[in-house]
Amino acid sequence: MNNKAVILGSNYYIGLSTIRCLGVHGIHTVAVDYSDRHTYAADSKYCSERLISPHYKEDPEGFIRFLKDYAARQSAPPVLIPCHDNYVEIIDEYLDELRESYLIPQTEKGLYTRLMNKESLERAAIEKGVAVPETVRVDEEGFLDKVESIIKYPCLVKPVDSPAFVAKFRKKLFKVHDRQELESAIRTAREAGLEVIVQRIIPGFDDHMYTFDAYLNQDSKVTHWVTCQKYRQYPINFGASVYTGQKYVPELYEIGKKFFEEIKYKGFAEIEFKKDAETGKFYLIEINVRITNLNVLLYRAGVNIPYITYRELTGNPLPPSAVERDTNLVFWYAYEDLLAIKGYLKTKQLTWKQVASSFWKPKAYAIWDWRDPKPAFSFLSMILGKFFGKFARR
To answer: Are 275 and 282 a contacting pair, CB within 8 Å?
Structure first.
């Protein structure tokens, strides 16, 4: 296989799982990041090559030129796999140019961005008959009255541009409990130059969050898929998966397959749903269009998304497959799960007994792998360095 796999982002476990998913099949993996600091994914024994690129935001043109220059030196076009939303955004912006040098599943420029943008995603979902939480825009006439009569408190102030919001505030949204908090949150977002919307909270604990993870081929047909159920998130209630199980939910396949195929999507994507605790109805919350946090769980369950992507784009696609049973496997990001558990216990959303009983399941670890231990030790060293650094500054 002459085609290399260029993986964007090696300072997080998503990049690590992607490198491993490809490396186990003997594929030459190239870890690209703008720094060598905290890039523990590149310490994997499955990483064939590591490169330092210009910063994708500080020098986007330099970053694109770097990628193109690298591809020009190869004997075959590399497969390009982003592992962070910011990398997806710049790929989408330069998609036509990058497709001249790289193998990329998506062919429609702008589709990635429309699905990441909360407003355009909501419009697409409604158009295709997929339920979304009731939403009010801050520039609507009678906005505050609509919040009180339709949305009701508490409610969520969510960004239109999630990556920019997370980069600024280190959280995915603001939860507000009254008009004063709502106005303050909107003002804070505006001062940061960020557009927000206000959304109803779908009732239900964090275990009412589900995912539909799918790969669509170049004919925009779902060929591989898995469904999962979250158990714990960090930050709690409105964060990322830290303890999530594979769970077969056929209804999510029916909703997700129809939506993705009708919008002519290609490649991997993940829909996050929330099941209304009162009605049982599934609501689309957001879509991830890059390799997911749960990638190692999908792999352990039998669906290797990076390898599926690589094989199709290099002209040798794998046969369709899906996980149509419960495997009992769980994804575990231990570091943030411990922080989440502390929060759940403090707010009395979980008891010690509930936490302890949840651990008796086979695990797909976010970072640890006994066959490839070095990244885990690099990660531990990084965490200890941050801890002692904070301690020394006190």
So the answer is: yes
Per residue in 156-186, pLDDT (tens digit) is: 999 988 888 988 998 889 999 999 999 999 9
Q: Where are the alpha helices (H) located in 171-249, listed in sequence order?
A: 179-191
- Options 3.30.70, 1.10.287, 3.30.1490, 3.40.1000; which CATH number does 134-200 get? 3.30.1490
Give pLDDT tens digits for 48-75.
Answer: 999 999 999 999 999 999 999 999 999 9
Residue ranges of domains in the chain: 5-109, 134-200, 206-365
CATH superfamily, with its number, for domain 206-365: ATP-grasp fold, B domain (3.30.470.20)
Cβ atoms within 10 Å of 250's Cβ, excluding its own: 9
Measured distance CA(134)–CA(203) in Å, rounded = 13
Q: Is 126 left (phi over 0), alpha (psi -120 to 50) or beta?
A: alpha
CATH number of 5-109: 3.40.50.720
pTM over 0.85: yes
SS3 366: coil
State the Cα–Cα distance between residues 52 and 55, nearest whole angstrom.
9
Give the whole-angstrom CA distance, residue 153 versus residue 151: 7
Q: Could you give the angle at which helices 305-313 and 13-23 cross, rounded to 10 degrees?
A: 60
Report helix, strand and coil shares of the chain as percent, to nearest 5: 40, 20, 35
Under 8 Å CB-to-CB from 335, ≥6 apart: which residues?
379, 383
How many other β-carbons are positioned within 10 Å of the β-carbon of residue 185? 19
Question: Which residue, among 288, 309, 306, has the nearest Cα to 296 in the 3D structure?
Answer: 306
Per DSSP, helices labelled H in the chain are 13-23, 60-72, 85-93, 95-98, 111-116, 118-127, 143-146, 162-169, 179-191, 250-262, 295-301, 305-313, 334-346, 352-358, 374-393
How far from each other are the two terminal CA atoms of the chain, in whole angstroms? 53
